[in-house]
Write a structure and sequence with these properties.
This protein is mainly alpha-helical and 144 residues long. The protein has helices at residues 3-23, 28-35, 39-46, 54-64, 68-73, 80-83, 90-99, 103-120, 130-140. The protein is 67% helix and 0% strand. Helix 2 (28-35) crosses helix 3 (39-46), helix 2 (28-35) packs across helix 4 and helix 7 crosses helix 9 (130-140). The radius of gyration is 17 Å and the shape is elongated.
Length: 144
């Protein structure tokens, strides 16, 4: 990719981040804190002045509650699962609040558990406690 095209991509990614942040009435300071980046760095990213790693983009997207594809390309992933209503179990909601998790991460935990249960269990799907959700999150947090 040419240097000019790379710079244009950075600016477009920055515009999407800033626009989404503002549409959610979120300050740059709040987003930076939640995404674990400095406010100055976030400002540079939003203006397209600094390159940003996929890990940091994923963190920013998660805090904003948007798909990484939206940040990178301006389009969200569209499939049947993303348009369906998702019911978050009460215990998971309590764990998410305690851990200060975004909706995206919370839904990812729910989907991860459903996937494990579907693959590894033939018995009834018992409801987890908040403590079990927190333990599960601690084990998989680097993947969500």
């Amino acid at each position: 990719m040419s240097k000019k095209k790379e710079q244009e991509n950075r600016k477009e990614i920055g515009r999407r981040i800033r626009s989404t942040r503002r549409s959610k009435e979120m300050t740059a300071q709040h987003l930076a804190k939640k995404a674990k980046v400095s406010t100055g760095y976030l400002s540079e990213v939003e203006r397209g002045l600094s390159p940003v790693s996929v890990d940091k983009l994923r963190s920013i997207a998660s805090v904003l509650g948007v798909d990484l594809n939206f940040v990178l390309e301006g389009s969200a992933v569209t499939n049947a699962d993303t348009s369906a209503e998702v019911r978050i179990p009460t215990a998971l909601a309590a764990a998410a609040e305690q851990l200060d998790l975004s909706y995206v991460v919370t839904a990812s935990l729910l989907n991860g558990r459903r996937s494990l249960v579907a693959k590894r269990s033939s018995g009834p799907d018992d409801e987890w406690t908040a403590e079990q959700w927190i333990e599960f999150y601690e084990k998989v947090k680097e993947f969500v």
